[in-house]
Specification:
Shape: elongated
Oligomer: single chain
Strand content: under 5%
CATH superfamily of the largest domain: Leucine-rich Repeat Variant
Structural class: mainly alpha
CATH class of the largest domain: Mainly Alpha
Largest sheet: none
């Protein structure tokens, strides 16, 4: 009898879904489309056994192409709620592979709020599975650390930090108390220098530092480590920094000191709305 009751309720839910949602998620009014997507995100979270599958997820995927920014935004926040729960990751694999390219392209959305949430969603995807995002996908997000719009840049900085800087080797735990050149931050500082040089935007060190300031403060303020990389001899088997790398490190170091002293973003970076050129 319990099974019969459950089947009956699910049939009613399906009837309501097909009678209401399937028509209204394409409503002429953007606000109604936004409500539909917001709600289906809640249903998937609350009752994932019934709703978290590709028959329902596809509606969110299709609506990511909506003309209105507020609707696209609801798609991304609904998906964030799902990707945040690691227990649901296995049920999202097919959706991720099918719609990942669209999410990556939304990091360049004309609406800044949408771009920020797209980057945050990709950061959650990254944490759920490293293999899903290709090197090209990641690079598309990395270069946004140089964006003139601060919220976009900060979100990209967090993505960059999670991908390149947040993993520590087990042996690092034993040297956490070491300082200067022997500290675990030494390799991370070098990674930052290599990234900066590879990105070939050498006049924008201040933008890179500002983007990562919130998530990597301890690393960016480890001036003792930066000094020792510049002044001390390399350890056994360690590659010395080239002149170009040392120059880049000095520039980054100056930007971190300025950021710490002045406590505001670099000139030319703001949080205003995008204005059509």
């Amino acid at each position: 009898q319990l099974q019969e009751n459950q089947d009956e309720i699910e049939n009613m839910m399906n009837a309501i879904f097909k009678g209401v949602f399937v028509h209204r998620y394409r409503d002429a009014i953007a606000e109604i489309r936004a409500i539909c997507i917001e709600e289906i995100g809640i249903w998937m979270k609350m009752y994932s056994d019934a709703f978290l599958n590709d028959s329902y997820l596809k509606y969110v995927g299709w609506t990511m192409h909506d003309k209105q920014g507020e609707v696209r935004l609801k798609c991304l926040t609904a998906l964030q709620g799902l990707y945040y729960n690691k227990e649901l990751n296995s049920k999202l694999e097919l959706f991720t592979s099918r719609f990942k390219d669209r999410i990556v392209s939304m990091t360049l959305d004309k609406e800044y709020d949408v771009a920020v949430q797209a980057i945050k969603l990709l950061t959650l995807v990254l944490q759920s599975s490293e293999e899903v995002l290709t090197a090209e996908d990641c690079e598309n997000v990395y270069h946004l650390v140089y964006s003139a719009h601060r919220p976009v840049a900060v979100a990209a900085g967090e993505f960059l930090y999670k991908k390149l800087f947040s993993r520590r080797d087990a042996e690092d735990d034993g040297i956490l108390k070491r300082r200067g050149r022997q500290s675990p931050n030494a390799n991370l500082v070098k990674t930052l220098v290599f990234f900066f040089l590879e990105s070939e935007l050498h006049e924008h060190a201040a933008y890179l530092v500002d983007s990562m300031w919130d998530c990597a403060t301890d690393l960016l303020k480890d001036w003792e480590c930066m000094n020792s990389l510049l002044l001390e001899e390399p350890l056994n088997g360690e590659e010395p920094l080239t002149d170009r790398q040392e120059s880049a490190l000095i520039e980054i170091m100056l930007c971190t000191i300025r950021q710490a002293a002045e406590c505001h973003p670099p000139v030319g970076r703001g949080t205003g709305k995008r204005v059509g050129s």
